[in-house]
């Protein structure tokens, strides 16, 4: 029940600055923008920014998950506008009164009456056909751990809640991304308590099963034709009792701290790719599993290389004579230089392929190096070069060479 109650008190859409009907891409873009602005690394010592960063991360963890977002929207819609009211001691912010009855729309499940004496009541009159009643019951069963009958039942409320998944970003130079590297990042947020190792109990002690709910986390009671379960008031829905809480984390099993994480970036990672680090996200409460951490990789442009899949591309300036007469060029690669032979008569803009000198592939092997030759024209010639080039132009014309002979625009 705890997550739903938190959802009722928090507008995750407002936290991210998006509309309730925002698309998944809009939510992702809004989160990434805020995460960059509010990240503790960008705001050292700013407690307000750190707290805002945590709220934004929590909002993204719910809205980025289609199932969580659907449940959040349904929960908020159900309790919108005060349509449900919760009485004192009910444990609900609305919907069910303190006696376990439903208040709203002139009906009360506590007495099945809308005014004076008791009246005959048909569930189908309220919910429509049987299918509708079943759907409504399923929804309330999910929110309030509805049971059929007395006693207790083990539900999701009795299980410690897994920590939220987190997402962060890091930027790598082009060559490190292509060859692979290990990057150390700093992450601020809930992490397992180092004193109690996440149990919430003082070192040397252990949590015990709650005697009130027998470890179920919920207690149930019948109200007329309905059976309701609610979080155990003794253990607050956790199913366990801690007699001696850990003095460092106050029994939560998690503390907010900044930690350094080594991220192994595989060779060949591309801009925008996400790397998943299992169990490195937000810590779960009282020893529950931690969420996962997703690291979004941004790759800076390189002044020499570009990529096409696993192939590495480079443009090499050459002279006209090198193309006409042929040459061997010294060309850079990710690891040193390599000689590339240019055949005589090579045309400007031709791409030469060098096998196995590209980006390493995750499945094994390496892409190729694609070398494109581009003629560089001198901006000025001295007298000797001018005379030589003029003589060549005369000889070229006498030999019958016409560079535009096959050009479509010549006709």
UniProtKB/TrEMBL annotation:
Domain (J): give its ranges: 11-76
A GO CC annotation given for this chain: cytoplasm
Q: Which domain of life is it from?
A: Bacteria
Give the principal location in a single coarse category: cytoplasm
The keyword Metal-binding belongs to this UniProt entry's keyword annotation? yes
Binding, Zn(2+) 2: 210, 213, 232, 235
> GO terms for biological process?
DNA replication; protein refolding; response to heat
- GO MF terms held by the record: ATP binding; heat shock protein binding; unfolded protein binding; zinc ion binding
Cofactor descriptive note: Binds 2 Zn(2+) ions per monomer.
Cellular localisation: Cytoplasm
**Which PROSITE patterns does this one have?**
DNAJ_1, DNAJ_2, ZF_CR
Q: Which InterPro entries match?
A: DnaJ, DnaJ_C, DnaJ_domain, DnaJ_domain_CS, HSP40/DnaJ_pept-bd, HSP_DnaJ_Cys-rich_dom, HSP_DnaJ_Cys-rich_dom_sf, J_dom_sf
CR-type ZnF: 180-258
A single Pfam family it belongs to is: DnaJ_CXXCXGXG
Which ranges does the UniProt record give for the CXXCXGXG motif repeats?
193-200, 210-217, 232-239, 246-253
What job does the chain carry out?
A: Participates actively in the response to hyperosmotic and heat shock by preventing the aggregation of stress-denatured proteins and by disaggregating proteins, also in an autonomous, DnaK-independent fashion. Unfolded proteins bind initially to DnaJ; upon interaction with the DnaJ-bound protein, DnaK hydrolyzes its bound ATP, resulting in the formation of a stable complex. GrpE releases ADP from DnaK; ATP binding to DnaK triggers the release of the substrate protein, thus completing the reaction cycle.
Domain remark text: The J domain is necessary and sufficient to stimulate DnaK ATPase activity. Zinc center 1 plays an important role in the autonomous, DnaK-independent chaperone activity of DnaJ. Zinc center 2 is essential for interaction with DnaK and for DnaJ activity.
Q: Which family does it belong to?
A: Belongs to the DnaJ family.
Q: What is this protein called?
A: Chaperone protein DnaJ
Native organism: Williamsia sterculiae
